[in-house]
Amino acid sequence: MLLLAFGIISVALVLWLLHRMNNTDAEIQKLALNLSFIRYTMWLLGQVVLSSLTVTRLVWGSRKELKPTIGKLPVNKVPKKSRVLYANSITLTPGTLCIDIDNENVTIHALNEESLHSLKRGDMADKVPGENKGVS
Prior knowledge:
three-stranded antiparallel sheet, elongated
């Protein structure tokens, strides 16, 4: 009897979840492909190429230049909806890795201090498209 009751409860739960999923699927999805997002993607691809060359120089060059470092960057300039895009963009760029993100900071590991300093200057944070810049 207990197994039958668990079976009925699980079937009811699955039917309820499927009903909710169908309601979500019916919602209109906005595709955020606008000019600012395309411009950012092109800029990010350029940064990936430049960073790849820098990482190659660091790996093949002198060990003195290779100084791994960890630092925190504030994310208050980045719109809330775009913070994951910002963290993923940092990780996509060779030589840098986003370790953690919270409401105030993103923690970065970089192969050299210059990579961390360039992120601290805020070029990437200023370019990330967000709700204030036309992406919803």
